[in-house]
Amino acid sequence: MAAADFPALQGFYQLLFLYLEPTSTMLPALMAWTFPGARCFHHQLVPTANSVPTTPLETRTQMLVWQLGNCYLLLGLVSSLVFRAARDALKHDPVSQERIVGALLAALAIADVTHIVATLIGLPPALRYDFLAWNPMTHGNISFVVVLFSVRIAWFFGLGRTPYWFFAFKKTKTA
């Protein structure tokens, strides 16, 4: 589908929010459910030099990890499907497209902030700001989310795109 069909989300924004982010949020669900599995997923939440334990997770912990995976899947599906629905149903209405895209991006931006804060609070104090000690899971939960949040804010300010609703000021004719 041509970029002109989705004026509210073009170029880099479309690539990131329509394809990369949904994939990056659905992938952890599959990883928690299948390979490397809930035990590895749980172990990687807090960086450690210890290897993944061989003992099974306690039943409640396993259920919690699987449910977290389900939340990741839901997040990816909502993003992917809502953006596509706005694009396909409102092809010739960029204002409505942008209002729907903006509503979803606002919700995701709020979730970004709470996710970053929750992750930082959950890390042991010695690891919070020791970026080199972070593992890929921690960088995904903090570093990548900071990037996503920053790009969402850039979208709201109309950087690199034509705004149709947010920051779209109507031009008035002068006599």
Automatic annotation (TrEMBL):
Domain DUF7704: 8-160
Keyword Transmembrane: yes
Segments traversing the membrane: 64-83, 103-122, 142-167
Keywords: Membrane, Transmembrane, Transmembrane helix
Pfam families: DUF7704
InterPro entries (UniProt xref): DUF7704
Protein name: DUF7704 domain-containing protein
Organism field: Mycena indigotica
Taxonomic placement: Eukaryota, Fungi, Dikarya, Basidiomycota, Agaricomycotina
